[in-house]
Design a protein that fits this description.
The structure is a homodimer. Chain A is mostly helical. The first copy, chain A, has nine helices and no strands.
């Protein structure tokens, strides 16, 4: 499977990487994702199109790499409660969606969906990482005694991601409200997890809950 | 603003409408939304491309009209509880997303986002109708005494739509699980509404709660 051919850490190459990333962001702001072209990125970044194609096979791969790089998630520090941990994560998700431009994600998600290779990379580099973080937060809650078992992680991911994506992407609502929505999503997910609202199948007690997702 | 130039109810024109709709569905199943063309729809439907362009200015408008037509929502019958009413609605949303093809919606949403006119029509013909239905369900809950006031309808919409869209579109998870997720979403939204989890701003008590959305 082709991966982005990123040059190793030579300073000149790193500057090119940075210029390309800045150009992608600037041009998406200016003309939207649909209007983004490799030629325009090359011109804006002051690099040759060959320099871009050495790194990325297509516009989609370039955009994916630049935006997903910015969307890297990390496990939030332990806040002492499941609700606090989930809020830290939903705030991170909300910041990501806003940072990558809510206007860009629909086009990028459509391209990811249409290309099996990008889809596999999205799954591996983004969704799997996020499920790993959610697993960490759930396991902390089990250690604290807030939960007795780990539920289906994919289901929890849908509860956490969904309302923020819907608010910012589908409904195209005010991004300024995203932090309050992040708080609400964390609160409702916590209730869903602790007040036994999840369907039995989500707690099927298989040795490896990941197999359910 | 251009609207789809639908011919009035002459039987021949209705047959053409039906043939176009069937062709759009068949070709999306066969080759995906990205591979859909007006030429292919005309050939499959046995109509001229002119007949399509008399109705729709673009491929996007045609697909939008066909899929959104199938996505028409109606207020579910009163089930006697807020949770039951919300579940009836989330089941309807899940069936919609599955019916229109989870593989189609990302591309269609991207095209809607990129075209201000389609965006305005999506807002008017779909999102506003759905918010009207949610308003009806919330008002029933107020009449029953389950809620004291009507909260921000857009926020409730995000809570209801979001996890189902995330599950089926972003996470690309098993559609067979959608009914259980619909039930979970209805349960968590009911708790969010009745257990005072919504932020104060969602209940700001303006005379017309629609103005918050």
């Amino acid at each position: 499977m082709a991966t982005a051919k990123r040059a190793s850490g030579r300073p000149r190459e790193q500057r090119v990487d940075t210029s390309i990333a800045e150009a992608v962001h600037a041009l998406i702001d200016e003309r939207g994702y649909a209007g983004l072209t490799v030629d325009a990125v090359a011109a804006h970044a002051g690099v040759s199109t060959a320099a871009i194609y050495r790194r990325y096979a297509t516009k989609q791969e370039m955009t994916f790499a630049v935006l997903l790089h910015d969307m890297r998630e990390e496990s939030p520090a332990d806040t002492g409660t499941l609700r606090g941990d989930l809020r830290a994560l939903t705030e991170q998700i909300a910041a990501q969606v806003r940072g990558s431009g809510a206007g860009t994600l629909p086009g990028l998600l459509a391209d990811i969906r249409a290309d099996p290779e990008l889809r596999a990379r999205f799954e591996a580099t983004f969704l799997t990482v996020e499920r790993g973080i959610i697993t960490t937060l759930l396991d902390r809650a089990i250690t604290r005694g807030e939960l007795t078992r780990r539920p289906d992680v994919g289901l929890v991911q849908a509860l956490l991601l969904g309302p923020l994506y819907a608010w910012l992407i589908v409904l195209d609502e005010d991004p300024a409200y995203a932090p309050e929505l992040a708080d609400l999503v964390a609160a409702t997910a916590t209730v869903a997890l602790t007040a036994n609202l999840l369907p039995d199948a989500a707690w099927s007690g298989t040795p490896n809950p990941e197999s359910l997702t």
